[in-house]
Automatic annotation (TrEMBL):
Species per Swiss-Prot/TrEMBL record: Micromonospora zingiberis
Pfam families: YjbR
InterPro entries in alphabetical order: YjbR/MT2646/Rv2570-like
The protein, known as: MmcQ/YjbR family DNA-binding protein
Top-level taxon in the UniProt lineage: Bacteria
Amino acid sequence: MADADDVRRLALALPHVVEIDSAGFDFRVADKGFVWSYPERQPGKPRTIRTDIAVLYVGDEAEKQALLLGEPELFFTVPGYDGLPLVMLRLARVDVGRLTELVTDAWRMRAPEPVAAEFDEEAG
């Protein structure tokens, strides 16, 4: 199963990725976030940074719904993310191979087109 160290290793292996200083993890490409720690908010309590849950950029509402409905054991959302192309991923329930795919896809959707194209060319 995966953890925050796996997220960090995978994200930093991608081109032009910057890690933002945070209490958990927060990765960006071209100043656009693609994966970060879940900032859990509960009424009447301070925000808690959850490094066991990753927030992933997924591109659009259709993909978000497909993940939520197709794999509810892995993915969830909260009302604060309604209408946003983001899902939360339970890291302890995903294997590193699938995490690699998810982080890379999130990066690809946020990276500038030439950077993503060059990455895809090099990957074959």
